[in-house]
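Example 3.2
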Amino acid sequence: MQPDRSAAKPGVVRTYLMEVSNGGNSEDTVRLGLAFRDFNPAGCTLTTLGTLKPGCPYRAVPTRIPAAQWTTAAELPREAGPMAPLDTLQNQLTVRVPRDWAGMQDTTYEFVFSGESSADPGLPPAHKSVTARQTVVATQESMTRYIRLEIAELIAEIEKANAQGIQTGGLLPISMHPARMHNDQALARNLAGDLAGTSREHATSGKIMQAFPRALAGFSGKVPAALVADWKARGEAMVKDMAAAEASRVASAP
């Protein structure tokens, strides 16, 4: 596969040349495979992705290339051949990471192209695989979109607690709804090409979320301790993400 490494911002199309050769001395049909690896085998969450926890090295979603949405994998043949000795066949795979990709950091996705002989009587039959790596470059837009997911998820968790009869006072109207409003404004400014304005919105959101742990402290004994700990961790993660997005000046792809 060529190239075996590539990097691009969201929205940019990358094309890979996939070549199969029959290196044997008899006619063969090669069974082809294409697998997209998940970089999150540890099952990390939005809060813990890309932290020191092993098994989830990148702070981005999705954690695996969705083949049907991002690639032309469905158009590729399942086999190559029959191929005479030394014959070579080629196909192309295109990968387009969408503009609305959410990621706090440059993130590398891996996919494996493999071939297996159908004529080789050996067990296992002759086979070979190559791994390609596509790095998605994090932009201020992708960071804003990741924070957007974090805010939405925390709001949903607080609303779920409210539905169970757990009173959370002003957490939603005082903290989370303003944070969501500023994130909406940050995204709008970013899409308009105003990176400095986006940074200002993230700075404001960060100040709101810095007060979130103090607001949580007032619910000690009223809200289950496990929920308080989870919400506190989410809030602290968002403060760090908002600071990173505020500092970013990486523009989106044209």
